[in-house]
Structures are given as C-alpha cells and as structure tokens.
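Reply to dn_fold:

You asked what the input looked like. This is it:
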Amino acid sequence: MLFTLNTNRIIVTDHVVYKYFPSKLFYVNIHDLISSQFVAHPHCQHLLTTLWYDQLPGWRKRDPFTKVFLCFTFIVAMPVLAPIYLLHPHGRIGQLLRSPLIKFINHSASFAIFIFLLLIASTDSSTQDSLRVRSEIRGPVPNRIEIFILWWVIGFVWSEMKQIWEEGFKAYVRQWWNWLDFLMLGLYLTTVALRLVAVVLRKTHQYGTESAPRTEWPAADPTLLSEALFSIAHIFSFARIIFLFQVNEHLGPLQISLGNMLIDITKFIFIFLLVISSFACGLHQLYYYYVSFEEDYRPTAFKSLLNSYRTLFWHLFGSSQAGHFEVRTINRTTGESEPMPAARNTVIVGEILLLIYHAMAIIVLVNMLIAMMSNSFQTIQVGLQIIFEYISKDSCG
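and this is what came back:
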C-alpha cells in the first residue's frame, strides 16, 4: 500500500519499510523508522484499522448489539475453537482466531475470568468452622479455585515465553508492561513453590500430625509467606487491567498521562528518601545515648534506625503524638513514669527537628510533587492524541 507523507513515499509491508527519496533508496527495519507522527498519520491509522478488523469484513457497519452478541459468541465458543486451532492452525478458523480483534477479545475475556477467580478466592465464602480449620493447617492442599488460578498462571507464563521468543529479549524488556507481567507471574510462581514446600513438609510429617493455631507458627512458615506473596500478586493482577485501556480513545490518553506522572513520582520518592533519611539518622542519634544498664530511656519511636524511619513516615499522616517522643524515666518514690528533667533540651531539639521535617516533607515536597504532576499533565496534552495512536498500534500485533 502506498502512502504520501510530507515529501516522501512510504510503502508498508509486513516487516520492512521502503523509503524512496528522489536520489537514493533506503532499506531499513520498520522498528527503526516508525515514529509517532508516522503512525498517527490518517493513512497509517486507516491501515491499522484495516488490520485490526482483519478476517471480519463489515464489522464496523454492524450495530452495537450485534457486535456484543458476536463477541459473546466468540468467547463462549473459545473452548471449542482453541483445539481446532491447535490441530489446524492455518485453516479458516485459525486465520479467524489470528485476527487482532479476536485475539484481543479472547485475551480480555481470559483475563476477566482470571480476575473473577481472584475475587472468588478473596471473598469470605467459607463458613466460620471451615475457615478456622483451614487457618490451622500448615501446608493446606489447594482447593478448586486455586487450581484454576494455577492453570491460568501457567497459561500466562507460556504466553510471556512465546512473546520473548517472537520479539526477542531486548524488545521485551523495553516495554514497561512486560515488567509488570514479570513481577506478577514471579509472585504467583513463588507462591506456588512455597505452597508446594509446605504441602511436602506436611505430607512427610515434619509439621507433626496435628494442626496447630497460627499463634504457634514460626514467622518464616512457608504457608504464611505464600499468603503474603499471593496478596501482593493480587494487587499487580488488578493493576494489569490498566493495560487494556490503550484501545479506548477516552481511557487510553489517561493511561499515557498516568505513565508519565509515575516518572515524576519516582523523582519525588528519590528526593523524599534523602530527606527522611537525614532526619531519621539525626533523631536516632539525638536519643542514642539515653540508656543505662538498668533501663532504656529512649522513646520507642527512635530506639532503632528502622523505628525512626517508620515513625517519620507515619508521622506524615498524623498517626503519632508529640508525647511519644519524650525521654521518660521511672520515679523511684512514686513508681510512675515521668519526663526526665535532664533531657528537656534534647526533647526541645527533637520537636524542632520534627517541625522542620514536617515543613520540608509536607509543605515543600508534596506541593512540589503536585506542581510536577500538573506540569507533566499539561505538557502531555499537547501531543496526547498522536502519542495515544502510536501506542495503541501495539494492539494490532
């Protein structure tokens, strides 16, 4: 197909672009030549639209109810069409299933079912008695919902492996969404491995023959670790839904804006870590020597460097009180806890440091983050439609 773009003529084929100039011929790979302005050109958008509805002539002329009915039919028929595709991939049904629109419908439906399975696994559908029995079993056997989730995870892993094989590792790691998929699937696979270890330990009677309450379990129990990783994988799974926004002309630009704002948030986190580290080290050092052989007078909030980080972080949300930072001692006469008179200047310095920390972290840094995100959003709006059309081209692959 021949396009006229500026003063050049572009011939688009499956893998390469031939770019003709008046004097010479250039042969380049399409990934090196393609750009956002080129893809956003109306002729290119027409070609991409044609590829998107490949094997589905007249789709755009159908009414919405017919489109919904056909989509539902394709989804319901997928368990039957998939084996036919595996047995005869180059037949008529195989060509139909390779259509970008059908691939997108099937992928979206599969991921929607996966999310639905996660919702079932997260809801409190069990009775209280069965829940209590399940909570005391170290290394429980997976139920039917968890087996279905595992089956979907194996399918996602196979899909990612095919993508790496077809696109190459370098092209794969350039896409940030692939990093999200890698983290999500890595968490699920680690969860499966820990659950498998726990089941083996229970089957070999290394846990004992009787169930025990969770209060007696070790903190590093494989079952507890697997449950923690499974909950984190839930979050990544639901965040993966944002990727489907790129095919929508209203939600797609918002996804692009969100992606660029994440860069601003990363910059803010780097600066915030410098600020909170300086104050955490300073406040920890301020109370460091208030300890004796009989008693530790240091406030719990700053007994260790980790406690200092935790206290300053939650202090941003108003979860701490000024009285928690006082140096207190036990009155030997009354036996009650009271502020240490000798530490009055130390407490004053600590309160001043907390005041400065609040001023820098909340008043300065947070408002700076808001200004950065607003500036990025306004900058993106200038060429947002072109960027959206360029990014949405990947859906035709």
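The chain has a mean pLDDT of 76.
Hope that clears it up.
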